[in-house]
């Protein structure tokens, strides 16, 4: 071979080798996801449920991403329902950390603040649990994988009236989901012949519930509809109901599933026995997908740990994010991501088949009427009736008629 040809061959090989090396980083894609949850304070148990589901999902399903693609999470603590803190954290994640997707959204006020930023920055926001109906109206870049209070409380009001209850009282936590639950229950109940004879809103930071419950006791309704955000507050309220004598009275206690949160049932004694709730999930469900989920959860976090509806919302939120990342091979485009979410579904969720409504970007799912029963010596929310594939009634019952 001529000397010149040899040099050209070496040069070509060097260029090709360099090009090959340069293509390796180009193929690797890291999708940055900002997670804003409550990791400290009184309601940290709720954020812990969501975060445990996120970690478990990544451990079991991280291998499903395309080769060279990974999801990296950046966690931030909003310390509780504080929209100013949530907004600041979201700004930091967008501007400093350059995240591709935001998620978390544990509290409705916080989610509303983050949603406004997602619209401005054009960043997809997968809110996992915020239950206020108006969250998804704040931005076209928001989807919800949890629930709304209208999904549980409107059909619960219908059920109560159709099952012979005529006089009801409502007692709800004084923030947006509580207001939604109160409005939804009242509408479903009154449309079917019931009458709400009184209502009270309880500040979120309240620790003494007895003055509020005395009003209920004095009014003597046939049924009490109650909502709180779950976690330790659910136990405190249930014990207050027992202390004032309402759990053993003729007043039927009902509400969305937050009030008998599964992780708190062991702390409530016998007080919640017979309480009726409406919710999209119970770890006591016998669906195979749920049995597998609960088994994996207990293997990871211990036999005494139990996943709640917060955990399942986090699990499905990660499923949606991973599916969107896989569909785009790690090259996240905000508008393509939102188009993908319009047709997203998970037929194998622990709570049953779920999908996203392409118009309102809310979760469509089964709702279950549940009753607290003693099962093998432990209290459980036993599913006794299924209401198939319910979206957010507020979007059609109220918003659709405005």
Please identify, by name, the CATH architecture of the largest domain. Answer: 3-Layer(aba) Sandwich
| SS strand fraction | 15-25%
Element-by-element helix/strand order: HEHEHEHEEHEHEHEHEEHHHEEEEH
Mean pLDDT: 92
What general outline do the C-alpha atoms trace? globular
According to CATH, what is the class of the largest domain? Alpha Beta
Please, what is the CATH homologous superfamily of the largest domain?
Answer: Response regulator
Task: Please sum up the structure shown.
By secondary structure, this protein is an alpha/beta fold. It has twelve helices and 14 strands. The strands form two sheets. Strands 6, 7, 8, 9, 10, 11, 12, 13 and 14 form a nine-stranded mixed β-sheet that branches. Strands 2-1-3-4-5 form a five-stranded parallel β-sheet, sandwiched between helices.
What does this structure look like?
The chain is of the alpha/beta class and 402 residues long. It is built from twelve helices and 14 strands. It has helices spanning 3-27, 44-61, 83-95, 108-121, 149-162, 176-190, 210-219, 232-243, 288-301, 309-327, 334-341, 393-398; strands at 29-37, 69-77, 101-104, 125-127, 142-144, 167-173, 195-202, 223-227, 252-256, 276-279, 345-346, 354-356, 363-375, 378-390. Strands 6, 7, 8, 9, 10, 11, 12, 13 and 14 form a nine-stranded mixed sheet that branches. Strands 2-1-3-4-5 form a five-stranded parallel sheet, sandwiched between helices. The longest helix has 25 residues, at 3-27. It starts with a helix and ends with a helix. The model is unreliable at 1-26 (pLDDT under 50).
């Amino acid at each position: 071979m001529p000397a010149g040809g040899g040099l050209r061959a070496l040069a070509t090989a060097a260029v090709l080798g360099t090009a090959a090396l340069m293509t390796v980083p180009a193929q690797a894609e890291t999708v940055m996801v900002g997670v804003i949850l409550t990791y400290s304070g009184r309601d940290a148990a709720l954020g812990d449920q969501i975060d445990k589901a996120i970690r478990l999902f990544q451990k079991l399903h991280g291998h499903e991403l395309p080769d060279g693609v990974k999801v990296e999470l950046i966690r931030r603590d909003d310390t509780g329902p504080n929209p100013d803190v949530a907004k600041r954290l979201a700004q930091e994640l967008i501007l400093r950390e350059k995240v591709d997707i935001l998620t978390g959204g544990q509290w409705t006020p916080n989610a509303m603040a983050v949603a406004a930023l997602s619209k401005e920055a054009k960043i997809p926001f997968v809110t996992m649990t915020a239950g206020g109906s108006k969250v998804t109206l704040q931005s076209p870049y928001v989807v919800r994988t949890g629930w709304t209070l209208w999904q549980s409380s409107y059909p619960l009001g219908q059920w109560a009236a159709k099952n012979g209850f005529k006089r009801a009282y409502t007692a709800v936590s004084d923030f947006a989901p509580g207001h939604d639950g109160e409005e939804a229950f009242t509408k479903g109940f009154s449309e079917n012949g019931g009458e709400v004879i009184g209502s009270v809103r309880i500040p979120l930071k309240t620790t003494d519930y007895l003055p509020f419950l005395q009003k209920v006791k004095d009014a003597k309704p046939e049924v009490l509809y109650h909502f709180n955000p779950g976690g330790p507050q659910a136990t405190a309220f249930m014990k207050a109901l027992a202390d004032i004598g309402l759990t053993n009275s003729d007043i039927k206690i009902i509400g969305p599933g937050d009030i008998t949160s599964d992780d708190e049932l062991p702390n409530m004694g016998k007080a919640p026995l017979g309480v009726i709730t409406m919710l999209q999930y119970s770890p006591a469900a016998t669906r195979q997908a749920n049995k597998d989920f609960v088994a994996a959860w207990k293997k990871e976090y211990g036999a005494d740990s139990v996943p709640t509806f917060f955990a399942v919302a986090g699990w499905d939120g990660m499923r949606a994010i991973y599916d969107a990342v896989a569909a785009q091979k790690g090259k996240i485009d905000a508008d393509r991501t939102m188009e993908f979410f319009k047709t997203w579904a998970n037929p194998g969720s622990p709570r049953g088949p779920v999908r996203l409504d392409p118009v309102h970007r809310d979760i469509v799912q089964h709702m279950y009427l549940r009753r607290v029963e003693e099962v093998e010596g432990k209290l459980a929310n036993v599913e006794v009736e299924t209401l198939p594939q319910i979206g957010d009634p507020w979007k059609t019952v109220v918003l659709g008629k405005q």
